[in-house]
Amino acid sequence: MTLDTTIFTAVQSMTGNAIIDQSMLYAAELLILAVPLSLIYLWFRGQEGKEDSIYAFATSLTGLAVSYGMGLFYHHKSPFTMYDTLVTGSAAENAFPSQHATLMLAVAAGFYLRGHKKLGSSLLGLGIITGFARIYVGEHFPLDIAGAGVAAVLALGIIYFVEDRTEPIVSQVSGFFQDIEDQILERVETAT
Fold it and tell me: What is the DSSP track for 110-167?
């Protein structure tokens, strides 16, 4: 038995409590909603917030692209195809690396890159919980979550490398949307 399956079976041995099992099912599927909510939160924090949101979003897309590329080179089935898990019966797909964890960790990394340490730490924590929950419910092996971490770090490196080159474009885009937001707010204030 490999270290990956040893850790997986140890986590699987924790299942059996209906409340915890249901909580983990929710965490595995719903904590990902923190990504769009945090991006929207930043978006409405002025032009700099819009720029930060764009960079974090770009990091997430880059992370997913890197993750997809990694999945082309290494493939293995989801644990639920081999074990009796909480999600047995789901559609089988390449489990490596976890897309949920990649997305959450990449956005957290993007927040750190742009100086939002509290928001980045919160999303990192939720990403770790999501990764654990996805192992707990049987969607992924620990290696899938570790692969997601690698994809997120590689995405951060790519975005960091191109940040200086893309700054003028991001600034124009965020300025355009900030102007629209300012005009809407001005009209709302004049109407009231």
Answer: HHHHTT-HHHHHHHHHHHHHHHHHHHHHTS--HHHHHHHHHHHHHHHHHHHHHHHHHH
